[in-house]
Write a structure and sequence with these properties.
The chain is an alpha+beta fold and 354 residues long. It has 2 domains: 16-112, Phosphorylase Kinase, domain 1 (2-Layer Sandwich); 131-353, Alpha-Beta Complex (Aminoglycoside 3'-phosphotransferase, Chain: A, domain 2), CATH 3.90.1200. The chain is 39% helix and 12% strand. The chain contains 10 helices and 9 strands. It has helices spanning 16-26, 74-84, 131-149, 167-182, 191-199, 243-251, 261-264, 279-290, 296-322, 334-353, and strands spanning 35-38, 46-52, 55-61, 94-98, 108-112, 208-210, 219-221, 229-232, 239-241. The strands form 3 sheets. A 5-stranded antiparallel sheet has the order 1-2-3-5-4, sandwiched between helices. The protein has a two-stranded antiparallel ribbon with strand order 6-9. The radius of gyration is 20 Å and the shape is globular.
Length: 354
């Protein structure tokens, strides 16, 4: 049931001999040549498994093509995880970061692979959880998010990771600018959504370590107990910021079994299973445990923000495909999702006004 890589996509091959030579300098005693596979779950950085006779590692590198400013910073992602590991043990163990782009065409870093189950769109075949167990899994995943938000950033040496107060405002300004730059002819302007968010941007409720891409397919579960989280992956966008913005981001990926057909096509995690908390229950559970107090209209800002931010990420990926900077066929119809998310944001705005 463990998550395993597949065949490397054409055009995304590694310079395996060069990577192998570099890695053996980082890990004395590493033997043989690696079996290289690639994970298809991510839509951003390229992720590979390097399986040796006496070692199992994950390599992450940026995609080819135009990249958003500040995105795909492998050195930063490596340093964040290195600092978090002592105080948040579910972070993978880092092996090394390589800034020499001559080795495989870009910077990259390598970490130890955490062997376990990654819940993607559906749970692995043969793994059927009853309602009570599914609910326990859901709450355990949320508890890990709440635990992250409780990390002492200063003690972890991460107090300089963010830019201080004004995080919410900077996010709305930054993501609005990114969308404008990545817009293609076949997607909406998002002007109404961006204006609504700008007008209603609140002060930060706190300044804590946030993951910024919290999803079920970024956690690793124990094979012996699929409700227990043993790993949290993909720290590319981690920073210091508002925890409710992090929760809003997480809810953008939360699809119920009774959501409309188009929304169902966007589902990439098993939140449709009986026993999973519904979006409103997730918010209630988080607020109850964190102590933050919000009413429905206040929460609408964070929910719309999460969907808008997702739309920008989707559009940035589609922009690369549209301009033939990536050949991954999975990105071909991402422009449809950009249109759908605009419609969904406007629906939430209308409901909040009501």
């Amino acid at each position: 049931m463990q998550d395993r890589g597949g065949r490397v996509r054409p055009g995304e091959e590694l310079n395996t001999p060069a990577v192998d030579a570099w890695l053996k300098q980082q890990v004395p005693g590493l033997q043989g040549a690696p079996e290289v596979t690639q994970f298809s779950g991510g839509a951003s950085n390229w992720t590979y498994r390097l399986q040796y006779p006496n070692g199992d590692y994950i390599l992450r590198r940026p995609p080819a093509g135009t990249k958003a400013k500040g995105a795909h910073d492998m050195g930063r992602e490596f340093r964040v995880q290195s600092a978090l590991k002592p105080v948040y043990p579910v972070v993978p163990t880092m092996i090394g970061h390589c800034a020499d782009e001559a080795i495989t065409g870009s910077e990259f870093y390598v970490m130890e692979r955490i062997a376990g189950i990654i819940p993607r769109k559906n749970m692995p075949k043969g793994l059927a959880l009853d309602v009570a167990t599914t609910r326990k899994l859901c709450m355990n995943v949320l508890d890990k998010l709440i635990e992250l938000h409780g990390v002492d950033a200063k003690a972890a040496g991460l107090d300089s990771l963010g830019k201080g107060s004004g995080y919410c405002r900077r996010q709305i300004e930054g993501w609005s600018e990114r969308y404008t730059r990545a817009r293609t002819w076949n997607v909406p302007s998002y002007q109404r959504v961006m204006a609504w968010l700008k007008e209603r941007t609140p002060d930060d409720v706190a300044n804590v370590v946030i993951h910024n891409d919290w999803r079920f397919d970024n956690v690793v579960l124990a094979e012996t107990d699929p409700t227990r989280v043993i790993g949290v992956l993909d720290w590319e966008m981690a920073t210091l910021g508002d925890p409710l913005m992090d929760l809003g981001n997480a809810l953008a990926y939360w699809v119920h079994a009774d959501d409309n057909t188009l929304l169902q096509t966007t589902r990439r995690q098993p939140t449709h299973l009986p026993g999973m908390l519904r979006r409103e229950e997730v918010v209630e559970y988080y607020l109850d445990k964190s102590g933050f107090k919000l009413d429905r209209q206040q929460w609408a800002f964070y929910e719309v923000y999460g969907l808008f931010r997702l739309a920008v990420i989707v559009q940035q990926i589609y922009y690369r495909y549209h301009h033939k900077q990536t050949r991954n066929p999975a990105f071909k119809n991402f422009w449809i999702m950009s249109n759908y998310l605009d419609w969904r944001c406007k629906g939430l705005i209308k409901r909040a006004r009501g």
